[in-house]
Amino acid sequence: MPPDHRQETHAVHAGRRIDPATGAVTPNLTMSTTFERAADGTLPHGLNYTRLDNPSRRALEQAFAALEGGTEAMAFASGQAATTAILQSLAPGARALFPDDLYHGTRALVKTSFARWGLVAEFIDFSDLVIVTTALNQPAQLVWLETPSNPLLKITDLTAVCRLARAAGALVVADNTWASPLLTQPLALGAHVAMHSTTKYLGGHSDVLGGALVFGADAPTAAVERVREWQKLGGAVPAPFDCWLLLRSLATLPVRIRAQSANAAVIAAWLDTHPKVEHVYYPGLPTHPGHEISRRQMQGGGAMISFEVAGGFAAARTVAAHVRLITRATSLGGVESLIEHRKPAEPPDSTTPDGLLRFSTGLEHVDDLIADLGQALG
Ligand SMILES: Cc1ncc(COP(=O)(O)O)c(C=O)c1O
Predict the structure, then answer these.
(1) Which of 16, 95, 154, 200 is labelled catalytic?
(2) Whether residue 244 is found in the same domain as residue 300
(3) Annotated active-site residue in 51, 163, 232, 276
(4) Ligand 1 site, residue 300, Cβ cutoff 6 A
(5) What is the C-alpha to C-alpha distance for residues 244 and 49, in angstroms, rounded to an integer?
(6) In whole numbers, what is the pLDDT of the chain averaged over residues?
(7) Residue 74 burial (10 A CB sphere; 0-12, 13-18, 19+)
(8) What is the chain's alpha carbon radius of gyration, rounded to the nearest angstrom?
(9) Ligand 1: does its nearest atom lie under 6 Å from the Cβ of 103?
(10) pTM exceeds cut of 0.85
(11) CA-80 nearest atom, ligand 1
(12) What's the pLDDT tens digit per position in 107-161?
């Protein structure tokens, strides 16, 4: 696949080819865990054992790399498995910076398992470049970014922060789950690695768990090799069928994410004028503090919205209790709209406001979504 093709073309064609044996247009699913050796003991097809490599996984990794504009990608069994592989690739005692607002599972991993591993983690506000500069006056081995952040949709200036982080000698990883490669391309803006929970927009149908790491051309070779070692030896790899399902979903990613974002932009503007809504967190709104930066690095405001209702915890619970069309559930990025009252869904150290509802905009008609939110808000 020529690298100069546009993302829509990569989404449909990367990692796919017509099967020379049968002419099958859609990719074959290779369930085999093991591959035959030749009489002399060699591996004629370059394949040995599915934990190490598998044609369905290889195809998916090629598609991930093409979509993010990277040179190499690795697929994992979940987003958390991908994050774990990065953290395991660091030497014990490494210093790492994380956003103060980030997916609570990443924070939990860092504060539990990787605290025991000796990781020295600091949580800072990456939307404030003075704070970032001060924190990076000392060397750091890892800078982990998440933009927009989960759940407060804080925006990090990727170009500025990646420059500072590189100067401090850090490997820069951007969790691009909430934007998707269609809206933001962190590698082109200076990150070494783009990370995804592919469970979300890349999968897009709430039916397959997965994770991905995509490495840019200048990612340090030693770091890439260490992560690859954890993927193969640690073995948190996706099953071939999950890879096949994901590759199938990628073809529609560009149209899904654009339509979902268009719905979200309308809903965010409507929520912003609703008398019972105290605050809307959506980078597509001109009042969002990260709006100008998001216009430079993100195509639109994305499909995730958080909003706070007047009346705090109890009021948020009441709104969530009254949706009819929208589903009350965790997760995001699927074709169906989901709403979640976040505070009770997060661990006790959560700093998320009590009255915050997180909304993952789906592909339903926007008027139906607004009607449902309207009746739930009362
Ligand atoms: C931003 C972000 N990163 C990582 C993850 C973890 O992904 P997974 O649930 O696939 O392990 C999530 C899950 O919600 C997420 O929202």
Answers:
(1) 200
(2) no
(3) 51
(4) no
(5) 17
(6) 97
(7) buried
(8) 21
(9) yes
(10) yes
(11) 11
(12) 999 999 999 999 999 999 999 999 999 999 999 999 999 999 999 999 999 999 9
Q: What is the pLDDT of residues 310-365, one digit of tens each?
A: 999 999 999 999 999 999 999 999 999 999 999 999 999 899 999 999 999 999 99
Q: Is 270 found in the same domain as 172?
A: no
Which of 196, 224, 250 is the last residue before a domain boundary? 250
For ligand 1, pick from 78, 149, 176, 177 the residue to mutate: most ligand atoms within 8 Å of CB. Answer: 177
Residue 248 annotated in active site: no
SS (H, E, C) 180-220: CCCCCCCCCCCCCEEEEECCCCCCCCCCCCCEEEEECCCCC
103 among known catalytic residues: yes
Residues 222 and 341 both lie in one domain: no
Q: What values do phi and psi take at 369, rounded to 5?
A: -65, -45
In a domain, 32, yes or no: yes
Domain boundary among 216, 250, 284: 250
Q: How far is the CA of 149 from the centre of ligand 1 (A)?
A: 11
What is the number of domains present in the chain?
A: 2
Mutational pocket test of ligand 1: of 175, 200, 306, the residue with most ligand atoms within 8 Å of the beta carbon: 200
